[in-house]
Amino acid sequence: MEKMSRVTTALGGSVLTGRTMHCHLDAPANAISVCRDAAQVVVAGRSIFKIYAIEEEQFVEKLNLRVGRKPSLNLSCADVVWHQMDENLLATAATNGVVVTWNLGRPSRNKQDQLFTEHKRTVNKVCFHPTEAHVLLSGSQDGFMKCFDLRRKDSVSTFSGQSESVRDVQFSIRDYFTFASTFENGNVQLWDIRRPDRCERMFTAHNGPVFCCDWHPEDRGWLATGGRDKMVKVWDMTTHRAKEMHCVQTIASVARVKWRPECRHHLATCSMMVDHNIYVWDVRRPFVPAAMFEEHRDVTTGIAWRHPHDPSFLLSGSKDSSLCQHLFRDASQPVERANPEGLCYGLFGDLAFAAKESLVAAESGRKPYTGDRRHPIFFKRKLDPAEPFAGLASSALSVFETEPGGGAMRWFVDTAERYALAGRPLAELCDHNAKVARELGRNQVAQTWTMLRTIYCSPGLLPTANLSHSMGKGGSCGLQLMNSFNLKDMAPGLGSETRLDRSKGDARSDTVLLDSSATLITNEDNEETEGSDVPADYLLGDVEGEDDELYLLDPEHTHPEEPECVLLQEAFPLRHEIVDTPPGPEHLQDKADSPHVSGSEADVASLAPVDSSFSLLSVSHALYDSRLPPDFFSVLVRDMLHFYAEQGDVQMAVSVLIVLGERVRKDIDEQTQEHWYTSYIDLLQRFRLWNVSNEVVKLSTSRAVSCLNQASTTLHVNCSHCKRPMSSRGWVCDRCHRCASMCAVCHHVVKGLFVWCQGCSHGGHLQHIMKWLEGSSHCPAGCGHLCEYS
Amino acid sequence: MREAVLTWCVPLELLCSHPLPVSAFLKTQVKLYTYRACAGKDEMGKMVSVINTVDTSHEDMIHDAQMDYYGTRLATCSSDRSVKIFDVRNGGQILIADLRGHEGPVWQVAWAHPMYGNILASCSYDRKVIIWREENGTWEKSHEHAGHDSSVNSVCWAPHDYGLILACGSSDGAISLLTYTGEGQWEVKKINNAHTIGCNAVSWAPAVVPGSLVDQPSGQKPNYIKKFASGGCDNLIKLWKEEEDGQWKEEQKLEAHSDWVRDVAWAPSIGLPTSTIASCSQDGRVFIWTCDDASGNTWSPKLLHKFNDVVWHVSWSITANILAVSGGDNKVTLWKESVDGQWVCISDVNKGQGSMSASVTEGQQNEQ
Known about the structure:
Structural class of chain A: alpha+beta
Number of helices of chain B: 1
Shape of chain B: globular
Protein name (chain A): GATOR2 complex protein WDR24
Oligomer: heterodimer
Number of helices of chain A: 23
GO cellular component, one term (chain A): cytosol
Number of domains of chain A: 4
Largest sheet of chain B: 4 strands, antiparallel
CATH class of chain B: Mainly Beta
Distance between the termini of chain B: 46 Å
CATH topology of chain B: Methylamine Dehydrogenase, Chain H
Shape of chain A: elongated
GO molecular function, one term (chain A): ubiquitin protein ligase activity
EC number (chain A): 2.3.2.27
Keywords (chain A): Autophagy, Lysosome, Membrane, Metal-binding, Repeat, Transferase, Ubl conjugation pathway, WD repeat, Zinc, Zinc-finger
Radius of gyration of chain A: 47 Å
CATH architecture of chain B: 7 Propeller
């Protein structure tokens, strides 16, 4: 009750004021009807017949029409109707088939006026003629409708529906002589009151009984009917054949239907069972009720709009013995609860957005949110009649993409597919990945790769002169910091420092592109000249542009080996050297065929042959005694990885993790790594990049991750004799009951490790076979095959 | 490194509206837009084009649209009681299925992880939750859950690691959890009175394992802690956690909104060390909740923005770095956390006018 508001409506002469309220009745109500002054309501039921005054704050019992010592069955009302022209005139339909009229103007306590006992069974409905004061119509369970003239003692005419019970009769507002009646067999009949012999028109409106009907107060050709089939249908009766205009689906069978005054498309319904609520529907929007009144605790039996020109007050009576006045404003509005918008972020970064179009339409003229938007939509038509369909709901669904034919996540897919994560030297990987990133327009990532390369692969190639050179160029302050840092802490690692600085120079300048392309070219050159595909190539690229600096530099250091360097370089046993270097172990990477520069190692640096005229080998030997400079960057790199991960670019984090391998792994806690890995793998799988995902799993160092590839792999074993799958044990076949694997040497069953020759497929216990083959190269089974054990 | 400028390609909404001729009954349109916005350091570019327009032929308002796991199909649901599935690959839109079975407006749909097959859940005003399944190319109702006393407002599938679990939030204030137990059987657990007056949204936490995965013997299922967030008419966001005995317990109550919470979205945990939840409310506010500690007990809200109207939806991008927010004014804005931890609107077109992005009227004009 907290949200209850008060509504005052001025209607011509009268003023309606009120709020949502209810009062308790002594007995369940069957029907209600409102006086034309909108100030009184009559409630009728099996054992109640009272008139209440509708005051501002409450209902006040005004008159009890149920008088007399002995309650008569005549007073057991199925329906009640208050004459809309005569405030003193009421009619009730009794369950025993009697139609009673009441005259409130009678001076005695008993207001009963006339009694018509013509129906044989319960009268379901009574109805006054809207304009003719003395005409009353009744419809009964016995299948007849009777028209009474209140000035006469008996019926004027009787109409036979030629069917079962009549459920409702309603005079047309439009047509003086016409009334509609609804039947339990689903038919609706249209009658001319002057022609009792046969109906004007008949059609089947519902599947099952039609419980109620109501003529539209404005569009007078419209008839709404409600049935047990849970539907409310609106018919246009003006056309030659009744045309179904609208159909509203409700939850339960429709017991009453009443058009809402002043709202062309609204009607109120209540149901006969199950559902206790009263709904107001917009017939154009047949799926969601516009409003819902939930006050009643039992079936609502009667509904009536309080005033024929006021849309806000609805009165209702219920089996829960209460009488309610509902304010439309206080109604709960399921539509308001409803989400008018749907939003979804698609996989590729596209956004699907569905929004209500009427909201859109209303957008232009709408004032800022005032808190009053709960009244929708449905009033909007009234406010702006020019807008025919405003307030009606339809939605626009848009899918936004980032690029034609692509998606915001296209870069992700491309990157994932093109990145090289292993199988090549670190420097190459970095270069490759930088190139990929750059081609995809991700310059920051590209730069990161370049920097990683310089950090981890810089083998102290570049002489100190370079350092001064770059400094002289006026590097950024970050660069200078770096330099000073290097200088201070890494005095011995001169070469590497310079290398770093140079890379800094790269990073800051726009030579990056140039650099990479140069790299490519020189790579080839290098291969030609040296016949070696050893990692040094990238260094070449870097160095190339700065040859002069190198030269400049050399004298400064005055390496004794300098003159021999060319020779050395040629003769240099590259592979061997690499094996010698303490490997920067790249977990799970095949080191065997790809010698890679683990940049942290001083010796590796020496590998890099340069086409300049000095030997790096000796230089670096001289310079690198102490621990590696990259350690200094591990913090930075770690932060960087975290940064990328936080940015949502877990791809970068994982790629770097894999490429750098052991170099950074120790700095990042296992759990985070795992999390990155699993996230990345998840993403890859979403994008259906199974191969990449598999590669990542394979390359991952985290046990939990790499075991992903070992999970759910099943090995099926078939029996070698009967060719059937062996189910329970691996060594004996359930079907042919033979042992599948016999040792060719000891002729016992091999239950564990079975080794066999792929040539003749004989084998046995590993030990036995090994022993056998030491002595003989022939198959122990005697098949004559020359087996080889490797 | 932190000052670095990133180049982003982000989608941005643009709305469309068709003035409907009176003769035409409610038409519901799907429009495919292309929008490219590059939020650089100092420039902001945009480019809009309509790829395609399609009639979803929904007869009433669409309440939800969800893309499937692979981003190839779009499911929509509407007040007209139907659920429709479209193939949206390569910018096309082919109606695959029109699912009818609900007796009231369908509020929300949710796709299950494809490892369980093609499964879609829908919830409706008719108090039912229906689970649809595609078999041999045809979609059919596979299960109907009618355990709620009022409209079911939200459905959300748990992370696939947990199995097939569906959380449903209803206006009756309860949240029910349906767990597939095999052979077409669903086990129901119900959290009664989760939110007084009603629950509007549910969102699962990404699957996280307590402690490290490393200690798990391989092959054995890790011991997940299942959690989800719900938002309701009591203006609260609640976090629920499954106890060891399988019962669900309220773990946290997040209080900041002053009106109904309309949507909650737990961010996918892609490389992020923290748990993040976005929530939006009738009061126009969008909050980002973060929790840094491992125990998951301290959540701190940060106001993303106060909109002038109801905010209906929040949705995270797949990498959880962009949040899409749709408000009652039919606008979608995209938000991204800047390096200094502030949330900035990256799809802000009318910079001067606050938060709003590509305006509706603009869309309309483009349309006409």
